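Hi everyone, sorry if this is the wrong subforum. Our group has a chain we'd like a structural model of before ordering constructs, and none of us has done structure prediction before. Sequence below.
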Amino acid sequence: MARNMSHYDQSYRDFKWELPPTFNFGTDVVDRYAREADGPALIWANAAGEEIRLSYSDISQLTDRFASVLTQRGIRRGDRVLIMLPRIPDWQIAMVGCLKIGAIPIPSVEMLTRKDINYRVRHADVRAVVARAEHVEKFADVMNDVAVKLSLGIAPGFESYENAMINADGVFEPAVLSLDEPAVLYYTSGSTGEPKGVLHPTRSLFAWREAARHWLDLDRNDVIWCTADVGWSKAGTSILFGPWSAGACTFFYDGPFDPAQRLALLAKYQVSVYCAPGTELFRVVDEDLSRYDLSQLRHTVSAGERLNACVAEKWRKKTGVPVMEAYGQTETLMTLANFACVATREGSMGLPMPGSDVDIIDAQGRRLPWGSEGDIAIRVPNPLLMLGYLKDEARTQESYVDGDDGRWFITGDIGARDADGYFFYSGRRDDVINSAGYRIGPTEVENALLSHPGVLECAVIGAPHEERGEIVKAFVVLRPGMAPKDQLVSDLQDHVKHMTAPYKYPRAIEFVDALPKTQTGKIQRSALRALEKKRLTLEEQPIHGTAN
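Answer:
Right subforum, don't worry. Here is the predicted structure as tokens:
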């Protein structure tokens, strides 16, 4: 039940970061719970009905074994390890095993293409990889660049992960890590060029416990199910680092999305905290929820994309549980949130996380009065913030501005704040597309389309969509002699799926005679976005073929 604003105000004023001098998530969280207060840490299930249950002591022993596997093969503190696994317990084991020796895991989705992997391995100077056997062919171009290659299953050129774990002795030297030492590396799409490598320090892994406490509202009695894919930072906050810092149990499901199955699993495993993107709730809430025993569900949260207000209200009416949205980024993690202790405000992104000074500022870093639109920014220092973009000091520095009362990290999002401190989202400063929680850089999609022999020019934007928030839409100018047929739409979509991660393909394609450009010849994506918004307002349909 929502309490009054004064409860939040008091909590916000009283909060003080209490950071330890050193921190290792593997030894200071997992091993400590295993030693002092053992209990359930992970429940895993898959679509075939298989199930695994692991305690903190189980996780402690298994991660010791993986840490020794890496150590015995020459992986050391600071080395980068690409982990490309699905939602299986070996993902947590590999992630935490890396952290124990101070190696830097790079969690990655299995949808990555050969080109995606080539870039990550070479950009991050990856020393070890862990992947399933059916995906190792994607590493063919970088086999000689990687010292240690482990595969789940038998694969040429890779050592068996299973055999390595069986033969491991669990002996290694745990790393004592300073708070600013690199800990985990996430890749996220930018508006131009290749994905950005977002490097987080150990203090971030420590600080994520506050999101688990204040937003997820977790304690040792909870079972939390966050359905995010393991390659995204959301998995860090709500599957691994957040829940285990609170001593909670994570439910982990490896299977296709089915809205009725989601509800059945919530009931079967007595999930008490459910974390899902708006796109998922959009589908799940239309099921007959009365068929399922959701009596243990006490808290629902959503992040990664804006949640439709009608969906949130329908969920509250059917379950009696409101949806608490939060806003964050790969670079900053949870920044603003709606909290169970405070009344929510329709359309709001929420209030700042305790310990974070968030405000609306102008280009000179000055705080703007309430009601004014400007940059959503976070005052530094803040332990939730990244160290920076890997090998891109210029881009890192461009993300900060010095103001009258300190230095600010600019999120890249535009918004406003009301008189009570609630934040409201207006849009992005750049062209990054947020579709169903996936951040997609338009340049990646444009480059893929331009490699098709029929495409002369193209521009990619995020087009408004009721269910997914935005979809990737491409405006395409064809080469002379090419006809804008429906089959060509499918061909272009398939081409993009083969050139980059499949989730980035354009769900809508519009053929045009020309693209809007500046006097210097630069394509104006902003003009195309404005066109789409106008069409949505007028309920017009695109003038050429589209496909979903």
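For your construct planning: Residues 540-548 have pLDDT under 50 and may be disordered. The radius of gyration is 23 Å.
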